[in-house]
Amino acid sequence: MSDAPSKPALDGVETASTLDAVIVGAGFAGLYMLHRLRGLGFSARVYEAGSGVGGTWFWNRYPGARCDVESLEYSYSFSEELEREWQWTERYASQPEILRYLNHVAERFDLKRDIQFETRVTAAIFDETANCWTIHTDRGDRVSAKFCIMATGCLSAAKVPGFKGLEIFHGKWYHTGHWPQEGVDFTGQRVGVIGTGSSAIQSVPIIAGQASHLFVFQRTPNFSVPAHNGPLSPEVIEDWNEHHAEYRHRDRTSAFGINFEMSTKSALEVSPEERQRAYEERWRRGGFSVVGAFADLIFNKEANDTAAEFVRSKIRAIVRDSAVAETLAPRDYPLATKRICVDTGYYATFNRDNVTLVDVRVTPIEEITATGLRASNAEYTLDSIVFATGFDAMTGALCNIDIRGRGGAALKRKWSEGPRTYLGIMVAGFPNLFTITGPGSPSVLSNMVLSIEQHVNWIADCLAYLREHQFANIEATVNAENDWVAHVNEVANFTLFPLANSWYMGANIPGKPHVFMPYIGGVGVYRQKCDKIAAEGYKGFALSAPGS
Ligand code: FAD
Ligand code: NAP
């Protein structure tokens, strides 16, 4: 469609080249997007802030990091050859294994030659006269492209809370989402982990095994279920090799994009004994399956209470000190309305003599000091602090870029009261800008690799359609966007999700509007909607010819 990309810019040097597409980010989304566009003959360049591919799996190298969707499903399905040649070793792959996989993908499909690493996109400005996007980077590149595709990740903008005193701390501190590539050895140290979300729940058991003493600073306890991780047996692998086409189809048409056997019964219609049996059976199976034990767990608070109480009873059974067990037991939001955690030995870690749980709801952190951390009732001497404090999720990475659409309007401003998109893919007023797994799509509520593939395929097909029909622009209409935002909210309000102060709601970032950001209508239903809209000539989008 246009000339090949020019050479990457050196520090401070500006280049001007015209590409069909710029893709921002080289995680699961950016890599596959590049592969698809190349296959269609479009010129494309990827800009990636990190020094390698992998996105989440490049940055999150903290001890114990691994997926919580099973490896066989948490992987690309677009290439039969890739599917056959890659062998996962564990039920839930570790971060190094997933990173190896993504490097293998990048090499196998020769992707790295079109990726410029260690380059952060700082601005993307739509030029209405030239009808293209101008992309600026922190290395001085200035590149124009017809299409700008954000593959910037939903959980890539790491958040360190603004505690007073961090700059005077004499020890070392880390955020789980920016872990040093060389790793960290906590042997013999006094370590503080702040946060008890999925990242903490995976890392705490391992850090506890190294540290002389570990303090876990908990604000809100989380529900966690056992992973029962282990090597994949030859039988499981053989079954997957034989049936994966069928399994992938099942996942694509499901609610969450994973093999999630959903009971059709209400938790309230069965006897207490039957309910207990169902929960025990799911607990033995491990992973997210407990949420599918009954059909109404995410819709009905009373039903949800039965599952929440079951998990609390498990915590009490595992943790010997009853006061610690009660502190670890979540009570103030329904099960699964914050992302449920999948752990290996998390609760049992609190039986160790070298682990102390500090409830910062009762004794808030007041400041970081030169030697550690001061809470309202005590001072903790620490050699290292681990911030497992999460991300400015879904909108953070996008709003960190100065994105300007028609009339110079800023995306950040448009989203100041919460994100507004059509399908989570496009935004009215921002022609030819796409967001992979953007807010308003199933995204973080699903097996994300599957949702990424769906978005990438939809976008690639859309670009091919525009070329075939000689349209220069595609843009969401305001009406379609309004209707979609209303639908996303309506569906969310049908569930218990809005009851939790979760990152899905933007509640973890001070000042961020409280809006439920992902689409909970289900990945199968959502896919059908997207396909229907495309089949109807991109209903709800305005398509225009060059110069019009
Ligand atoms: P990312 O992998 O986040 O990649 C985005 C890339 O964009 C990053 O490399 C970033 O450096 C780059 N970038 C961002 N902004 C810029 C910029 N301005 N300029 C240049 N580059 C930029 N999901 C699941 O479904 N199952 C799981 O088991 C699971 N486990 C997870 C574990 C952890 C620890 C975390 C943090 C998330 C997990 N997720 C999981 C969600 C995970 O983020 C997605 O599954 C998936 O990896 C996202 O891929 P992506 O390419 O969309 O984004
Ligand atoms: P998170 O779920 O947002 O957890 C952050 C934790 O830090 C919470 O416990 C939070 O408490 C606490 N916190 C934040 N600010 C604080 C403050 N100022 N003082 C005290 N505590 C504070 O982040 P995460 O654990 O990194 O996980 C984010 C998401 O990434 C997950 O939900 C999941 O989708 C994905 N992930 C998946 C895996 C996996 O198992 N594969 C692993 C890691 C991450 P509050 O709850 O009170 O805000």
Tell me the number of strands. 20
CATH class of the largest domain: Alpha Beta
Strand content: 15-25%
Q: Could you name the CATH homologous superfamily of the largest domain?
A: FAD/NAD(P)-binding domain
When the domains are counted, the total is 2
- Specify the CATH architecture of the largest domain: 3-Layer(bba) Sandwich
The value of Rg in angstroms is 24 Å
Helix content: 25-40%
Number of helices: 15
CATH fold call of the largest domain: FAD/NAD(P)-binding domain
Shape: globular
Give the low-confidence spans.
1-14
Please provide a written account of the structure.
Strands 1, 2, 3, 4, 5, 6, 17 and 18 form an 8-stranded mixed beta sheet that branches. α8 packs antiparallel against α9 (322-328). The chain folds into 2 domains: 18-157 and 393-544, FAD/NAD(P)-binding domain (3-Layer(bba) Sandwich), CATH 3.50.50; 224-387, no CATH class. It has helices spanning 28-39, 56-59, 80-85, 95-108, 198-210, 234-252, 272-285, 301-318, 322-328, 346-349, 396-399, 411-414, 448-468, 478-493, 523-535, and strands at 18-24, 44-47, 115-116, 121-127, 132-137, 142-150, 172-175, 190-194, 213-218, 224-226, 341-343, 355-359, 365-368, 372-375, 379-381, 384-387, 402-404, 433-435, 473-476, 541-544. It is built from 15 helices and 20 strands. Mean pLDDT is 95; it is low at 1-14. The longest helix is centred in the last third of the chain and has 21 residues, at 448-468. With 548 residues, the chain is of the alpha/beta class. 31% of the residues lie in helices and 16% in strands. Flavin-adenine dinucleotide binds next to α1, α2 and α13.
